[in-house]
Amino acid sequence: MSDWTTSFTSGWSIYIVVLVLINVVGCAWLLWSNAKRRPGDPGPNETSHVWDGDLTEYNKPMPKWWINLFWLTILFSVGYLIYYPGFGAFAGVSKWTSAGEMKREQAAENKKLEVTFAPYAGKAIDKLAMDPKAVVIGKGIFNNTCSTCHGSAGKGAIGYPNLTDDIWHWGGAPDEVLSSIQQGRQGVMAPWGTVLEGMGGDNAVAYVIAYLRTLSQPQADLRNDYMASQGKKLFDGVCVSCHGLDGKGNTQLGAPSLADAYWLYGDSNEALQKTIRDGRHGVMPAHKELLGDTRTRLVGAYVWSLSQKRGAETGKPDTSVQ
Predict the structure, then answer these.
(1) Same-domain check for residues 18 and 59
(2) Would you list the DSSP string of 285-313?
């Protein structure tokens, strides 16, 4: 933390302390100074303020019990500021924080949920996917946690994978899908624009894109496509280390297949240019600590069921690891 930040924090704390003291001491002084009669004050029935002949303004002090309640309120506020945070940077003798309170309540609720989740503990996600009740529970957890990025139907968006197809950049086996959910993933595509242009000139990235588009077209003939043939040379010199000679990727690295016509960040020339030139950094957060082992398994079961439906419709293998 910088000296400026430390000074600002200390100054802000002092400012809060001063405000609190002014309020507490000011209330006590106001109460004390007005709780007794001063010499020269008119008597309770001597204000001489009379209206309509019989309406008289009196100057009677508040009753003792009312005054004592105010004093008790002030004492309570002092005790509160000693026990709880609120007096500047002083954390209070209880060390209470809203974050800590939330964690305690969350832990208590999680214990209650363990009873519901106990039948599903430790089971493989493909086995859970066969249980309709487990899938329904997993869908509810998915909607509350995962739909923000992947959409309520799991079809993803630009930069967020579609979970209903049979394409898995990190592997589509049950344990690999579960690992992606529980441990998270870091997908990094390095920026290659400068390197490629140093090897193949200003059009190098365009050449590579032309070649990439042929990978999903087995009938393509590079002999009649100058740009694609030039792109293959560049691809073989730079890209094969991650994506392989055939461009089908490497699930150990999270390197996607370039031969399936699926582009996570879009298939336009502009999107592909940006991906190759500037690189990409995709992050799938780890959810095991947030949801626990059983709930992540239930989410995995729901996700697995989505891809299996797609596999049944297309007739493709259920555990594709393209």
Answers:
(1) yes
(2) ---HHHH-HHHHHHHHHHHHHHHHHHHHH
Quote the number of domains for the chain.
Answer: 3
Contact by Cβ (8 Å): 285, 184: yes
Cα separations in angstroms, 58 against 45, 66, 219:
5, 18, 104
Same domain, 61 and 206: no
Q: Are residues 160 and 203 in the same domain?
A: no
Write down the pLDDT at residue 282: 93
Q: Is 243 annotated as a binding residue?
A: yes
Task: Tell me: is residue 242 an annotated ligand-binding position.
Answer: yes
27 is in an annotated binding site: no
Q: Write out the residue range of the structural domain in which residue 220 sits.
A: 191-249+258-277
Residues of the chain with pLDDT under 70: 1-9, 37-38, 40-48, 59, 309-322
189 among annotated binding-site residues: yes
Secondary structure tally for the chain: helices H, strands E = 14, 4
Taking the model in full, what pTM does it have? Answer: 0.68
* 206 located within any domain: yes
